[in-house]
Structure formats: structure tokens, C-alpha cells
Amino acid sequence: MKRSRVRWYYIAPPIFFFWVFGQMDKLGISVIITNHKFLKDLGLLGETAKIGFLMTGFLLFYGFANIAWGFIVDKIGPRKTAIIGTLIWGITMIMGGLSSSYGLFMASRMILGIGEAVLFPVCNKLISNWFPPREFGRAQSTWIIGDYLGPAIGTPIIIFTLNLGGWEASFFLLAAFSFLINLPLFLFLTRDDPKQHHAVNDLELQYIQEGQKAQRSHHTGFGDLLKNYKYWMIWLVMLVDSVLFYGISFWLPTYLEKARHFSTALMSSWVSSSWILALITVLLVGYIADKTRRPSFIGAVIFFIGAIALITATSTNISSLAALMMGVGLAAVGGVLEISQLLLVEYSSKETAGKAAGLMGFTNIVGGFTTAFMGYLVEVSGSFTAAILFLVFNAVIGAIALFTLVPGERKHAANQSDIVEMNSEV
């Protein structure tokens, strides 16, 4: 009898689309704020700092809700949690499209933040439940590529919808994606645990359980995780990566249009290309991390590459080179996100994966204040240079944090060699 692959055919696709459309909901606003009618209707013309607070309001609720959802997902399971979150997304997208004032629109973004906070706990819990450790890199890639493919395809889709039906229509379209795609996928394909799924055969169940048991026998509870300094180094990495992610993703369209004087069409092409480059980076990093078992070292190097790229973007007079370097910076953020999530599921246990991911997702609050702070820096300085150098500083901090994990990484990789051999793919 051949081992079934339900974890890849039934679990990975819902996780992937969960992030594709979740990121469209979250980051579509970065494109919508370039629309003159939207800014005029909500009284935001010339209000750079106020525009930045649109993401801050979202992420303030997103960050705190991550902690709550982390406990909820460990209690009721990832499937029910994902369904609840998806319903909230769709409702708030409709609210956003019907908003007639800045206050109402901000309220819809805050509620959306509560709903989207299920993303990290749900996906890390499903991966912890369904995949053996030697597949963590590739398994995490299934949602992280959605994280970057969503904005890549969402940017042209939203721009097309803005031109065709106005900014309101773009929100109604995003609501339809949640109700018609994400919701059915979780309802009909997923289950919380391999033992609950009708399509899992005994060989796949044994393969998953043996790998998990061998990897996590030394973890006993959430308290043990909180005492592990390695978890807090990963938490710090996630924090600065959130600063970089939201700082670049939120302001990139505006930077290309205002600072580099790109047309809307050219801006759209560069933004989409940047997300695709990040997607490719995530896939490559996931593969290399699984093969080398040296994720911390790889992540530190990636952070330094991102810092150099951002410095180049601020110093060059060639607009196309600046756009490319900002894309490299975004790709570096994606690579480190892959690393941080891989390390998270390695150091947490199956029973605490939801809470561990929820606490890590709290770091997005700092990313939210980053968008407003960068807007303030642009407003007072008249350029994006200081704002981008602020991102460079964060990348260096992240690299240092990852380097603290490197000394013990080789020993950890050697200890897992027997597990890799035992769980080789058929």
C-alpha cells in the first residue's frame, strides 16, 4: 500500500488560499490609498500620517487578537477558527465598501484586524498537526507563498477594479473571494488532525506521528517554551521582520509614484514583480532550510542582503534600480518570515503551537505603528530617505538576533539526521 498525501492535497491548498485572499484584504489598502477619489471621499487628501494610521488601526487589533486566537485555536481547533475568521473578513470587506467617512472605514479595518489575526495561529497549528519536522520548511512555504502571491496578483486586480467600478467595488470583490473560495475550502477539505480525515491511510498517519514524536519529546508545555531564550530571539526576529514587511509593503506603491514618479501602470508592474520575487525567495529558502538544517544562519545572511538593498535604493538616482532594490528588500523580508515560522514550529510543541504563534503574531502591532511613523518621517523630512534608513536599522537588529542562534544550530542539525533518514520520502 502506498502512503497517502492528504497533508499536501487537502491541507496545503486551503492554507495557501487563506493567505492569498487574506493578504489582498490586508494590503489591498496600500494600492487603494493611491486612488484620488478614495482619498477625497474619506477626507484624506494630503494627510500622509493619517493614511498611515489606517494600517496602524488594523494592526493594533490584529496584534492583540493574535494572542487571543492562539488560545482559541488550541481549544476549538484550527478548522473552526479559520471558518470564524473568514466570515469576519467577508463582513468587514462589505463594511469597508459601504463606508462614507474616515471613522467608519477605520472601524471596518479594526474589525478586519480581529478576523485576520487567525492567520498565524491557524496555519501554524495545522502544520504542527499535519506535517513531520523534516517537511516544516516546505509546509510553511505553502502559506508564505500565498502571503506574497496575494499582493502580487491582487495589485493589478484591485487597480483594474478601481478603474472599472470604483474603490467601493474593490472591497465587494474581496468579500466575494472570502465567501466563495476560502470558506468552502475549509468546510469541505480540512480537518483538525490526520486521525479525523477520511482520506488519510495508516502509512501516512504513522509517518506523521513518528516524525512529530521524535522531534518534540523534549517539549512539555507553554511554560517551557516561554523559558526558552531561543523562542524570544525568534520573537524579536519576527518583530523586526514585521516592521520591514509593513513598512515596505504599505508605502511601496506611494514611494514609486511620489518619490520615483512612476505612472500607475508602471507602479503596478514593479509592485507585482516585487511580490513575485519575494514568492520565489520563500520557495527557495524553504527548500534550502530543509536541506541544510541551518535556518538561523540563512536568515541572518538574508537580513544583511535586505539591508544592503535598501541602502542602495536610497542612494541611487536610477529609479528603476531603486524599485528593484526595494523589491529585493521585500524578498528578504519574505525569506526571513519563512525562517522565523520554520523555527517557531521546531521549538514549540504540537499542543502549544497555536499559543506560540499567537504570541508571535502580536509583533504585528509594531509593524502597524511603523506605517504611521514612516508617514510622519516622510511628512517632516519631505522624502522617503529617513524612513527607509529606519528599515535598514531594523534589518541589522534582526540579523544579530538570528546570529545568536547559529552556534547551537549545527549540533541540532546533527541530532536530527537520524530522524531524516527514518522518515525519508517514498
TrEMBL record:
Keywords: Cell membrane, Membrane, Transmembrane, Transmembrane helix, Transport. Pfam families: MFS_1. InterPro entries: MFS, MFS_dom, MFS_Na/Anion_cotransporter, MFS_trans_sf, Sugar_P_transporter. Residues 11-410 form the Major facilitator superfamily (MFS) profile domain. It is a multi-pass membrane protein. The chain crosses the membrane at residues 53-72, 84-105, 143-163, 169-189, 232-252, 272-289, 296-315, 321-345, 357-378, 384-406. SUPFAM superfamilies: MFS general substrate transporter. It is found in: Cell membrane. PANTHER family: FI19708P1-RELATED, SOLUTE CARRIER FAMILY 17. This is Sugar phosphate permease.
